[in-house]
Amino acid sequence: MGGEEVGVEKATIICRCNDVTLEDINKAIEAGIDDFELLRKYLKIGFGPCQGRGCLLIAARIFARRMSKSLGDVLVNYSVRPPITPIPAKYFTTVSLAFQGGEEVSRGGKS
Amino acid sequence: MRILIIGAGVSGLFIAYELLKRGLKEVLVLDAKTPGYGASLRNIGCFRSSFTSREHVLLMKESIAKWLEIKRDWGVFIEQRGYLWIARREDTLDVFRELAKFHNSHGVPTRVIGVDELSSREPYINTSIVKGALFDPTAGKMSVIEVFTELYIRVKKMGGIIIPHTPVERLVSSGGIVKSALTPRGEYAADVFVVAAAEGSRKILESIGVNAPIEPSPRHPLVTEPYAEVIKSGLVIDWDTPGSPHITQTQHGSIILARDIKDEPWTPLNSQRHDAFEKIIKPLSELYPFLRNVNVNRYWMGYYDMTPDHHPIYGPVKPFENLYIAAGFSGHGLMMAPITGVLIADWILHGRPRISVAENLVLERFETGRLVKEIAVVG
C-alpha cells in the first residue's frame, strides 16, 4: 500500500505505442470496466502500430488475473485487423500531382 | 416492473440509463457478444442535424441538445465543430443552397460558404479543386469509446445488470404478451421487452411472427496513426465523388477515412477488401494532399443497419402489449442514442413519446406504406 508500490505501477508500461501503464489498467478496472474488449478500446491497447503484438497478451493476462477469468474468456471477442503493419497511404494515391506543384512524386505500388 | 433490453449497444444502454434515471429498479440488458460489439464502437463518432426529413431534423436537434448536456455532466469529449460538405463543382453549390433552404426552414442554421471561409476552417484542404461547401454548425464529433464506456459504467452503477455473451434465440409469447426470452444460458422472464439488437433484431422478432425489415450494409473505415490536429471539423465530406468519401480526426489524433463502397448486405464483418485502401484514400488525398505522407494503421468493418426508408424503427411492436423496438438506425444510431433512450422510456412509462414525430417511425409504417423520405444518408 506504500508509495513505492504505486510508483511501480505507474512505471510499468504495458502498451508502448500508446503509453498505457499498469496503473492505467488498474484504475480502469476499479472504475468499473469489467469487460476486456471495452477496457482494451478505452485505453487504446493494441491500437498502435504494433497492432497488439507487444501488449495484448500482457494486458489480457493482467485483466484475467484481476477478474479471476481464463485467458480464453477474456480474449473471446478479440479480432485482428489488417494491415498487419502500418502501410504508407502514398501507395494508394497514384494521383496526378499537377495541383500540388509536384513536391513529391508518388511511387505507386511497385517501387 | 422488470425490463429486459436485448442489445447492450449504445441504444440499449441509453434506454437502460433513462429508465434507471426515472426510478426503475429492475433493468436487465442482454448482449449476444460484448457490450458495444456492433456499430456502437465501429462508427466514426460524428453527429449532425442537417438531414433532409422533418423526422430526422427534429429528433437530431433534440439529441444534440442531450449530447451537449452529457458533455457538461460527464466531462467527455464531444465537440460541436461543424460538418463541411465539399463541392468540387460549381453547380453543386446550387444543390447546397436548396438544402440550406430546407434546413433553415426547420431551424437548422446551415449555410453555403466560399473557398476563403472553407480554407480558414480547413487550412490543409487543397483549395485548387474545391468551389465551396455547405457548413452545418450544429454538427460535430465525439470520442465514441469514451462516451460508450462512461455510459456502460453509469448504467451499472445505477443498478442496471448487463449480461454479455447471451444471445437471445427467440421470444416466447402468449395471448399478445411476450413472456420470456430464450438464450443458451436459460430463459429470462420480464414485464416489458425492448429489442435493440441492430440487425440481430430481425431474427429475434421473426420468432414471434414480426417482420422488421433491417438489412445490414457493410462500411469500411480506415484509421491512420495519430498526428497533430489537421482536420479541424467534425466531418468533411467529398459530396461530388461517388460514395461520398469522408474524413474526420479523433481526439487521440488518428485520422479516420471512409467511403461508401458497394457491398452486399449481410457480408460478414471480417470480409475486409483489398480494394478499399485505394478507393478510400485516393479521392481524399486529392482533397488533403498531406495524406500521402501518413501511415494507415487499421481497417475495420461495421454495419449501417438500413431500413427501407433509412429511418429507425421506434416504439411499440404490435400486436404485443409489452414489446418495443429501437433498431435500424441506418447509420445514425450513435447520434440519436440519447433521444432514443428518452423516447423509448416515454413509450414504456407513459404510452407515448414526448416528441410526436417519433410516432411516424413505428414498425407498422412498412405495412401501411407510410414511409419517411431521406436523401442524404452519409455521415
Report on this structure.
The complex is a heterodimer of chains A (111) and B (379). Chain A has helices spanning 3-11, 22-31, 36-43, 56-67, 71-74, and strands at 13-15, 20-21, 87-88. Chain A is mainly alpha-helical. Chain A has a domain at 3-77: BFD-like [2Fe-2S]-binding domain (Arc Repressor Mutant, subunit A). Chain B has two domains: 2-44 and 145-214 and 307-368, 3-Layer(bba) Sandwich (FAD/NAD(P)-binding domain); 83-137 and 221-300, D-Amino Acid Oxidase, subunit A, domain 2 (D-Amino Acid Oxidase, Chain A, domain 2), CATH 3.30.9. Helix content of chain B is 28%, strand content 24%. Chain B has helices at 10-21, 54-74, 92-105, 115-121, 144-157, 201-206, 276-287, 333-350, 365-368, and strands at 2-6, 26-30, 46-47, 78-79, 83-87, 111-113, 132-136, 140-142, 161-163, 170-174, 177-183, 186-189, 192-195, 215-219, 222-224, 235-238, 246-249, 255-258, 295-299, 302-306, 313-316, 323-327. In chain B, the strands form five sheets. Chain B has an eight-stranded mixed beta sheet. Chain B has a six-stranded mixed beta sheet with strand order 9-2-1-13-22-21. In chain B, helix 1 (10-21) packs parallel to helix 5. The two termini of chain B are 38 Å apart. The mean pLDDT of chain B is 96. Chain A binds chain B through residues 31-35, 37-38, 41-42, 44, 47-49, 51, 76-77, 79, 81-83, 86-95, 99-100, 104, 106, and chain B through 33-37, 41, 126, 128-129, 145-146, 148-149, 152-153, 156-157, 164-165, 224-225, 252, 254, 270, 272, 277-278, 280-282, 285-286, 289, 291-300.
